[in-house]
Design a protein that fits this description.
Chain lengths: 472, 472
């Protein structure tokens, strides 16, 4: 007898050459794994402790958010529509951000993603040791990195200055990252795992980068890093090393299949090609880079050479949501408009980027990203009776995949199963009190806002003027 | 005693120079109008038949969808990611589309918009006489146009041919439009009104266009028309008249404040400037034009000269959703990425385009688009306790407006009041059975799909190949 049987599903398995669509399909789950997938009429594992008749709704792999910073989610919406998002607006609030705010805010961020169908969170932040508890509690699959850099919080850097790098800071952060690894890597049969997260090539010495790489090899994990993420990074790299980020990383042996290169905002076509050809993955954050920088990163270039392209929602201050349906939509439309061609980034391709190709990018394709026997049971049920998914047609042409990408907004996700466990059912979280989490987060946010007031007053920013004018 | 008192609101009135934000605010409603707006502590009309304590949630004007075709909503998702969206994919389904499908599909489309906070629908379709019943039933505010053109359905046109125009078709469609006007214009104290809807300058003779204009003058209504909506239109205009659409329209006296010019996809900067300077409004459909054509229309050019810029969700096959939160998001990010500048199309400006500036564009600013005494009571309540709106901060800097535009997806809309009537409460429609509407629509859609099969089989399109490959 299996634990869960999902039947009468419009299955989108993401297996095989196409999307592996099976109308009138079924999936069975035992413990944390998928045990059988196929047409209901040929199904063998029909006895289950829990049977879910989904009445032709869509059943598909959970979405993978390949780059998210839940620890600053609590600053959502505080710096928008400005140059220099960080210095121009977010800074007073970052200064006032405490551990409580990071951890409480992270919880709401995770809930937000989960309710929109995200089952795997590549969470990149600190204090990750504490944030990991949130993932453990809500039941999410998490791939965690505790940010490593050599940036001292105390130093006041003028624009244009080379960042002073402080090796003692680097060593402390490395210790945190190792502690995280020791404590959480492999938790619950690998539902939570860790990797190394050097913040960027401009924020640490070559020596530390190489040390990080050795550790990653030892633990057999990937390296999750911002690469060519902005003109400031390129400026720092040229000033310090006389070369751009990607050439530098190639020379020190960083461009290989261990690397998850996030953003590539400033990468040229040639540089992007090199990253892809060396076997590294690209993580594209369409919403965040579009809203913060007005840029569409070179994902079209990357995917000419590699399918290891994943999507990430990045951080709520900036993006401003952590919703993979939003990322799919933005990715499709922004890339179409970049080259004035409606054919590029079609729905099926973008859906792959949020599922099976993301799993490949993370090196986790044997475990997640599709619905297949033996894989971990990370599955979402999407309500095709929602107005935004109406109508649901199977023949002569199916309209479900385009509607998932272009129309659904995440609120159609009805049920979320992670690692064989139902963590959301009929839109109610089963393991966490959503209301309580938001209430506690709101209190923490108000405390941050209060502390930020003294920094904010002295800034006289574009945003504070807009606030005075009543525009925000 | 008033009918409804909304209290403890974070009011975004859209009145005055800024956005007219009033924390701890209240609004009262009697019959179909707003009677008082202000801070709760100074409020006079405190006795009400129904009191809604919104506990600091956002209360704002209902959103205005300035261009929507609900009559083809039932074909959602059937033609995506191709050149020639209509001929390349939608055609077999359009051929099979019957009146039942149009009307039943329209109902679900309206429900979709309404649940995402749209209170005014500028619905442009046919048979509008029947679709009007849907708006009457659900309680939406509607500005209706029955499409007028001289295109014969029977003629098979080869690509590159000049469309044959048939004056008898034009006269029949004009009769329908006049019937609609006589029957519905002014219904329920103007909750439903009508205007003239010539489909485009390429689809009818100059004589018919001028006749339409005379009728619009007689009824004192605007003219809602697609202008420079694609390269095909420009090609037809140049072939027939030796000039582009906007020059032609200017010469025949069509560019004035009666005109709502939809799309302007192909308009040059100079042409756009002329449209704005002549006093016409622009309706921007960011999602639909982005997905179908990969183009960002020249809204930035338009708004240099005029504030009469509104947003429209266009038709579900193409866009694919009729959700104004989606339109706001797309409008901001696409325009930022068009010019690589995060400062353009800031949140507050986009929010205006969906409310007060849309009302100006429609010439309805005395009635809708903001919360002010004497205006019609079209109001939505947005749940700021949703994860996507978390946290909600008022000081030292408010983050609510950016989060409404960049993060909310419409599912945060809790309550919708139109013309003083609560049409949705706690996400349940009060006047329509949503489930039943979707069930009936789904049946109608399946009938269309069945009839489309014979046309579809002969087409051998990109999409039918993708269908065979299991990609859609």
């Amino acid at each position: 007898m299996v634990d869960i049987l999902i039947k009468n599903a419009t299955l989108i398995t993401m297996e095989g050459k196409g999307l592996g669509i099976i109308p009138q399909g079924a999936v069975s789950i035992k413990d944390n794994k998928i045990t059988e997938v196929g047409q209901l009429r040929n199904f063998t594992q029909k006895k289950a402790h829990k049977e879910i008749d989904v009445e032709e709704k869509v059943v598909m792999p959970g979405l993978i958010d390949a780059h998210i910073h839940t620890g600053i989610g609590i600053l959502r919406g505080l710096s928008q529509d400005v140059d220099n998002w960080m210095e121009g607006g977010l800074w007073p609030f970052v200064k006032a951000l405490d551990e409580e705010g990071r951890v409480k805010g992270s919880m709401v961020n995770i809930i937000e993603g989960l309710k929109a169908g995200t089952t795997t969170f590549c969470d990149y932040d600190n204090p990750m040791g504490k944030i990991a508890n949130n993932h453990a509690q809500v039941g999410s699959r998490a791939v965690l990195a505790d940010t490593v850099n050599e940036m001292s919080d105390k130093s006041d850097i003028e624009v244009g200055d080379l960042y002073p790098l402080d090796p003692s800071v680097g060593q402390e952060k490395l210790r945190n990252a190792l502690e995280l690894m020791e404590k959480w890597h492999g938790y619950k049969d690998g539902r939570i795992r860790c990797l190394m997260g050097p913040q960027g090539p401009d924020m640490m010495s070559k020596e530390l980068l190489l040390e990080v790489k050795e550790i990653a090899k030892r633990y057999n994990t990937k390296i999750h890093m911002h690469v060519a993420q902005g003109d400031r990074e390129i400026y720092q790299m040229e000033k310090r090393y006389g070369k751009r980020s990607i050439q530098y990383l190639d020379e020190i042996g960083y461009l290989d299949d261990m690397l998850l290169a996030v953003h590539l905002t400033e990468a040229t076509a040639e540089e992007t090609k090199l990253v892809a050809q060396r076997g590294a993955s690209m993580i594209l954050c369409s919403g965040s880079i579009g809203i913060i920088d007005g840029i569409v990163p070179p994902a079209a270039e990357f995917k000419k050479y590699s399918s290891k392209l994943a999507l990430g929602s990045d951080q709520a201050p900036g993006n401003n949501c952590n919703n993979m349906f939003n990322e799919m939509k933005f990715t499709a439309i922004l890339n179409k408009c970049k080259v004035n061609d409606p054919k590029v980034f079609p729905a099926w391709e973008v859906l792959k980027m949020a599922t099976i190709n993301a799993a490949k990018a993370l090196g986790m394709e044997d475990e997640i990203g599709s619905i297949a026997p033996g894989k971990k049971a990370d599955i979402i049920i999407v309500d095709t009776n929602s107005p935004s998914m109406f109508p649901a047609l199977q023949t002569p042409q199916r309209n479900i995949v385009p509607n998932l990408v272009y129309s659904a907004n995440g609120s159609e996700v009805e049920t979320v199963i992670i690692d064989g466990e139902i963590v959301m059912e009929e839109r109610r979280l089963t393991k966490t009190n959503e209301k309580q989490a938001i209430l506690e987060g709101q209190k923490a946010a108000e405390n941050i806002a209060q502390r930020a007031e003294k920094f904010y007053k002295n800034m006289n920013t574009t945003l504070s003027k807009k606030m005075e004018e009543g525009l925000i």
